[in-house]
Amino acid sequence: MPTTPQKTKIKCVLHSAATVRAPSGGIKQPKSYSGLGNRKGLGKDLGVIGIGGRKGMGAFAPRAGESPVVVLRMQVLGCKDLLGKDSGGRSSDPFVVISLLTHRFRTPVQRRTTNPTYAPVMATFDIPLYLSLVERLGLGSLEAVAWDKDLVGKEYLGEVAVGLEEWFGGGGEGYGEGRGKEERVFGFKAEGNVPFTLPLISTRASTPSQGRITIKLGLVRTSDSQNVMGFDEIYAELIKRSRPSLVSVPPVR
């Protein structure tokens, strides 16, 4: 019996994940995917943010009935040497907001510290990735912004942005040491997937760049996943689809 070429297998799997099946009764609408941030007792899910910060799916909505091809799981372990905004500059009440496309999550607030640590159950978030939105990933980054919680409002502490192509090999402290690209680890629970540390930067003139954040990234499958592709194949496909196509660029005259 002839074997199916690898490229054909990948195309079939991706087509199956992105195709909306419409039975005789209309489009089948599966239950919406719920990440860790939606479950009771975990970090706060700030909901879906539309264009201009308004609630709603806007132009970032997946196709009706589409299932995510994979889930990006992010854990915020903590921060070090943050700016002190309270008590004469000796401490802060920091929390971290995570965002990617329309998804936003928030860790709990740690009181009176510049070196917060967050329990995994309170600071681990799942972000579903859809093939129909992959091109958007190439235009944005996974962002983590540290804030100091005040009685009224909040104060900016710094941020970090990790682009799609840097999720697994961004060069952070402790990440991928001694590994080549062929040895990168993609599964969140896979042996060898370790947290890494990145310096926080400031995009505001009134706030100096100070502090570091430690995070862990990895891919996990959805609970109803029938995808037989490996995480390395899925990630490679995400990278490929996120890059602007030269075919779509108009000729230069």
UniProtKB/TrEMBL annotation:
Name the record gives this protein: C2 domain-containing protein
Pfam families named in the record: C2
CDD domains named in the record: C2
SUPFAM superfamilies: C2 domain (Calcium/lipid-binding domain, CaLB)
Sequence ranges assigned to domain C2 in this UniProt record: 51-178
